[in-house]
Design a protein that fits this description.
heterodimer, A: alpha+beta, three-stranded mixed beta sheet, three-stranded antiparallel beta sheet, 2 helices, 26% helix, B: alpha/beta, Rossmann fold, 8 strands, 21% strand
């Protein structure tokens, strides 16, 4: 449900950049670590709703979910964390630490040609 | 068409406030605990009981977050601690800016420990940094033992998990061993306390942990600035 807050921040960031570029934004790429708990469809829907009558209306949002990684304390291998199979895929050891989750990032914006 | 690389953190505004809050708390050596759980896990009852148990030992303040009403702040005041209520009017989490403002609604310089009781929700509050010292997750027995597996975000980030309402364990299929194993998969350092805010069972261990946390922060200033009376 916090997707509405996140959508508002994205709208503000893209609108500010559009003003700087003096162009109409038509697409934007977002990346986020899975622990940000962003539901892709919900965020798209929230963004669509709040962007009506703004420079971002009809903008296409591409959201890339990044898995969280873990590091095995025994063999030091880095692997994608899966709660249902929480063992190091290399040595099967179950003592590992979760690495920091990828932040919620506005990666790039595509602008219409002037 | 042209592409512009931005690489900008979307929650940067919240992070900036969180950093300010962290500096504010650090300056005062005041530990701040962000308490997160589902609605109805017993957060407020637990805080009220904690305040009563630590009366005369720690001066506690509480920032309450709810969508509507100041019922929780009233309950905290009744338990004997100053409380400030934030109403989010629909938002599912507290943000760092709201906390910055709330600091000044409490006698902050007289406190040894500050709790923030977040909006009842196991998902969204875990992704908004408030600048707190630690996140505390509360899981109550009737919610079921599958919650750490289903909502890993908060359990991976919590320094402490309080398993509340253990007085009704016998009436449920709640498996403490499974919960402990699931939490430990997410974070080996998490401390787990089994408590019943209603009967008081296990409250001593939890309150000892809090006293220790506050003492570690406070001793540093006592030595430096305040002569013992």
């Amino acid at each position: 449900m916090h997707e509405a807050t996140v959508a508002q921040f994205i709208l503000e960031a893209i609108s500010a950049e559009a003003k700087k570029q003096k162009a109409r934004p038509i697409a934007a790429k977002i990346s986020c670590g899975v622990f940000n708990a962003i539901n892709t469809e919900t965020l798209k829907f929230a963004f669509e709703a709040i962007s009506i009558d703004t420079v971002c209306e009809n903008l296409k949002l591409n959201i890339e979910q990044k898995p969280i990684k873990a590091k095995c304390k025994k063999c030091h291998a880095t692997f994608e964390f899966d709660l249902h199979e929480s063992k190091c895929p290399k040595c099967r050891h179950d003592d590992f630490e979760l690495l920091p989750d990828a932040p919620l990032l506005l990666e790039e914006i595509t602008f219409e040609d002037k | 068409m042209r592409k512009v690389k931005v690489r900008r953190k979307i929650l940067i505004a919240n992070e900036e406030y969180a950093a300010k809050n962290r500096a504010f708390l650090k300056e005062r050596k005041l530990p701040c605990l962000n308490v997160i759980s589902s609605p109805g896990s017993g957060k407020t009852t637990l805080l009220a009981k904690t305040i009563e148990t630590l009366r005369g030992k720690l001066s506690i303040g509480v920032i309450e977050g709810d969508i509507q009403t100041d019922i929780d702040a009233q309950r905290i005041r009744k338990a004997g601690a100053p409380a400030h209520q934030i109403n989010t009017d629909g938002a599912c989490h507290l943000s760092a800016a709201q906390i910055s403002y709330a600091f000044h609604k409490l006698p902050i310089d007289r406190l040894d420990l500050l709790f923030v009781e977040n909006v009842g929700n196991l998902v969204c509050p875990s992704t908004f940094d408030l600048g707190e010292t630690n996140k505390i997750a509360v899981l109550s027995v009737p919610e079921g033992d599958d919650k750490p597996a289903k909502y890993p975000m908060i359990f991976a980030r919590a320094a402490v998990v309080l398993i509340n309402k253990i007085d009704i364990l016998a009436a449920t299929d709640f498996n403490i061993k499974k919960v402990k194993a699931d939490i430990s998969k997410l974070n080996k350092k998490t401390k787990i306390f089994l408590v019943s805010a209603k009967t008081g069972e296990g409250m001593k261990q939890w309150c000892d942990w809090l006293e220790n946390l506050a003492d570690n922060k406070r001793k540093k200033i006592l030595k430096k600035t305040r002569p013992r009376q």
